Amino acid sequence: MNSFEGKLDSFSSANSANSASSISGTGISGTGEAKHAKAATEAGADGAVFKDLAQIVQEIGGISAENVSPESRFSEDLAISSLNLIELIVNVEDNFGVRIEDSDAQHFKTVQDVTDFIQAHRAS
């Protein structure tokens, strides 16, 4: 089994409980842009990581970067499929120079989870 297949199996298992839930909206508030700008400013270096990560989410999921918040959940709020989440992880690895193991990726539920991982594991 290659790394991609392992990640797909991991996400399929981790998200099986989520697949039964329906998406009843995007979970995005109308004041998203101001909220995200404030969060990015308060976060300092995390803000730059968050901004870049939101751009990756936009490219993969078709969600406007302004509508992505740190609290956004990949499956429920952003409608990111398990396959798209794998694509997102590969892009994160390439763009931020981190290696994400399957065991780590299983814990990624929100954008903030990935931001925290990047901050903790990025080469100085």
UniProtKB/TrEMBL annotation:
<keyword id="KW-0596">Phosphopantetheine</keyword>
<comment type="function">
    <text>Carrier of the growing fatty acid chain in fatty acid biosynthesis.</text>
</comment>
<comment type="pathway">
    <text>Lipid metabolism; fatty acid biosynthesis.</text>
</comment>
<dbReference type="InterPro" id="IPR036736">
    <property type="entry name" value="ACP-like_sf"/>
</dbReference>
<dbReference type="GO" id="GO:0009245">
    <property type="term" value="P:lipid A biosynthetic process"/>
</dbReference>
<keyword id="KW-0276">Fatty acid metabolism</keyword>
<dbReference type="InterPro" id="IPR009081">
    <property type="entry name" value="PP-bd_ACP"/>
</dbReference>
<keyword id="KW-0443">Lipid metabolism</keyword>
<protein>
    <recommendedName>
        <fullName>Acyl carrier protein</fullName>
    </recommendedName>
</protein>
<keyword id="KW-0597">Phosphoprotein</keyword>
<feature type="domain" description="Carrier">
    <location>
        <begin position="47"/>
        <end position="122"/>
    </location>
</feature>
<keyword id="KW-0275">Fatty acid biosynthesis</keyword>
<feature type="compositionally biased region" description="Low complexity">
    <location>
        <begin position="12"/>
        <end position="26"/>
    </location>
</feature>
<feature type="modified residue" description="O-(pantetheine 4'-phosphoryl)serine">
    <location>
        <position position="82"/>
    </location>
</feature>
<dbReference type="GO" id="GO:0005829">
    <property type="term" value="C:cytosol"/>
</dbReference>
<feature type="region of interest" description="Disordered">
    <location>
        <begin position="1"/>
        <end position="38"/>
    </location>
</feature>
<dbReference type="InterPro" id="IPR003231">
    <property type="entry name" value="ACP"/>
</dbReference>
<dbReference type="GO" id="GO:0000035">
    <property type="term" value="F:acyl binding"/>
</dbReference>
<dbReference type="GO" id="GO:0016020">
    <property type="term" value="C:membrane"/>
</dbReference>
<comment type="similarity">
    <text>Belongs to the acyl carrier protein (ACP) family.</text>
</comment>
<dbReference type="Pfam" id="PF00550">
    <property type="entry name" value="PP-binding"/>
</dbReference>
<keyword id="KW-0963">Cytoplasm</keyword>
<dbReference type="GO" id="GO:0000036">
    <property type="term" value="F:acyl carrier activity"/>
</dbReference>
<keyword id="KW-0444">Lipid biosynthesis</keyword>
